[in-house]
Amino acid sequence: MKKHRKPATMLVAGAGVLSLALSGCAGAGSLGASDQTITIAMVSNSQMQDAQKLASQFEEENPDIDLKFVTLSENQARAKITASTATGGGEFDVVMISNYETPQWAQYGWLKNLSEYAQATEGYDEADFIPTLRESLSYDGSMYSVPFYGESSFLMYRKDLFDQAGITLSEKPTWAEVAAAAKQLDSEDMAGICLRGKPGWGELLAPLDTVINTFGGRWFDEDWNAQLTSPEVERAVQFYVDLVREYGEPGAATSGFGECATQLSQGQVAMWYDSTSAVSTLEDPSSSAVVGKIGYAPAPIEVKDNSGWLYSWALGIPESSENPDAAWKFISWMTDKQYIRTVGEDLGWERVPPGSRLSTYEIPEYKEASAAYGPLTLDAIENATPEAPTVQPVPYTGVQFLAIPEFQDLGTRVSQQISAAIAGQQTVPEALAQAQQYAEVVGATYREER
């Protein structure tokens, strides 16, 4: 396990964000008290919205616990949750975090050990979580957050449009194939592809980092020398920027996961490379115009084989929570096997939170509903390579992020430069020259520690 430093700058910046952005609502009383309020900070993705719809079932079963949800966009959630947890503010009893934050925050002592809770909860079955996800949410052998859903990345494309145009993809498509298909299908009425361009280390950089990796690029060499102006990185970023500028969606520089999900589900783009969790939107007959028309293929490759990312939106309990036992009651309800069945039976099997538990992929109804994408999702998650994300050796782990504390700020700064290139405000070499300077500052601090 690589150790993570706790940078003082994160704490100072976090306190500033906290004072501006959070009003907070700490839980009242201890477990068993009446009108106990558990405040839950969550990202406003579709699966989380489903959890809110079903939350009344939890409250009926636990009349002594009231739930208060604070739902935020991805970038807002990261900033507010980080600020609150880092400063021990106590605003939230449950926080939605990822496999980026979890091991670092566990080392800092910011999170409760959830393996202790899981092992004391009859039938919870911690071992049922997909092993790669379980490991990515662990520190020193214990889980400090548990997955609500897990994801890798893959290519989603309109099968009907591909058939009409006579386009076929390889079993493992290359980025050259994707670019050629985007060019052929792009028209005034239909964008060839949707790719994230919105700034944010968890927005634009998520798909772009997988492209950098598979093109042979890396952020740092083994000695922490920044590599963002290397030929491999420049070629990858130029490819991505050109592809989305020439054949991508309108307003690409402000498009993130949500915007692309809407574009493809409403039939406005021919392809989308992004999270495997997008199927919950694309295959939902109540909101999608393309149900049954989408084909799924592994994350496109170039030099490096197997380029899909590994990510989980997971639930943790800050050490500052005044009601950790009640918080665990809610977390265990929302991440249990029974919750998955409840979503399938009440809302539809296509809306089941994917990629968290192995047993999900053995449910007959889910196997039937997810035949087109379920096995591909599970395979991508199980075979992701966060310990060896690049062609050349690197001193960090993580596929679509670097598992170092500084990446939350560094990645956001770099993404802003590249988003500006997508918007046509500067060239890719100009964007990467500035990004290199940011990375050099971070790399220097690691070299000094040697």
Automatic annotation (TrEMBL):
**Matching InterPro entries, A to Z?**
Bact_solute-bd_prot1, SBP
> Keywords of this protein's UniProt record, alphabetized?
Signal
Q: Which PROSITE patterns did the record assign? A: PROKAR_LIPOPROTEIN
Pfam families with a match to the protein in the record: SBP_bac_1
Signal sequence span per UniProt?
1-28
Transmembrane stretches, start-end: none
On the tree of life, the source organism's domain of life is Bacteria
- Keyword Signal appears in the UniProt entry: yes
Gene3D superfamilies named in the record: Periplasmic binding protein-like II
SUPFAM superfamilies reported in the protein's UniProt record: Periplasmic binding protein-like II (SSF53850)
Q: Note whether Signal occurs among the keywords.
A: yes
Q: Which PANTHER family match?
A: ARABINOSE-BINDING PROTEIN-RELATED, DIACETYLCHITOBIOSE BINDING PROTEIN DASA
- The name on file for this protein is Various polyols ABC transporter, periplasmic substrate-binding protein
